[in-house]
Specification:
Blueprint: H1 2-8, E1 12-13, E2 23-24, E3 36-47, E4 52-58, H2 65-71, E5 76-81, H3 89-98, H4 103-122, E6 127-136, E7 141-143, E8 146-147
Antiparallel strand pairs: 1-2, 3-4, 3-6, 4-5, 6-7, 6-8
Helix pairs in contact: 3-4
Amino acid sequence: VESLAKEMLGMTLITHQTGPKGKEVQRLLIESGADIRSEFYAAITLDRGKEMDVFMVSMEGGVEIEKVAAETPEKIVKVWIDPLLGMKSYQARKLAYGLNLTGNAFREAASIFLKMYACYQSTDASLVEINPLILTGDDHILALDSKF
């Protein structure tokens, strides 16, 4: 791992998110592997058309959500959040239900969704996204990558 990390540091990473010029890799975060049973997508952003925040989840995690939205929009569950009331626990549960989660995973996902909204509000972010959000083999929910 150490030798691969040294190779990556300083190189230029080019992806659809960095653009053609890419970005220099300045630091790495190395985590232990995860037992992934399912991958999900979760994000909060502003729906300018409705002038409300929208929380979106999809069972199509780990992929470009723009592609899912364009090709199979029915795979995205959306909850609009009244700016005067904020996100309510029933809305977080609706999102977890939309991912077909049960038991401990359902409770953990709902809790994470409420915390994502709190992060979104407290930082005045334009986007809070976890992709992928995973279900582990032992029924836990874990964020593998996020941005805001």
